[in-house]
Specification:
3 helices; mainly alpha
Length: 76
């Protein structure tokens, strides 16, 4: 498994855990988990070369990272 896949998979596991935490009204835990997921997804996206051949994978990973940042209340 490539590093991109490993990072993405870990991000999705953490994202699922954040969703469960939100469902149980554990908002602080959900934010922490979303922030961790954002870090992994960002790392995965950064490993994809900025090349037309890498699309749409690269864009999808960055969109996913942005969504996770929003969930983590990382609004800059």
């Amino acid at each position: 498994m490539s590093k991109v896949q490993e990072f993405h998979e870990q991000a999705m596991i953490l994202s699922d855990q954040a969703m469960v935490a939100r469902h149980h009204n554990e908002n602080e835990r959900a934010i922490v988990l979303s922030r961790q997921a954002f870090e992994y997804e960002s790392q995965a996206a950064a490993l994809i070369p900025n090349d037309k051949k890498a699309e749409p994978t690269r864009s999808i990973l960055y969109c996913s990272a942005a969504s996770l940042a929003y969930d983590a209340q990382e609004l800059w």
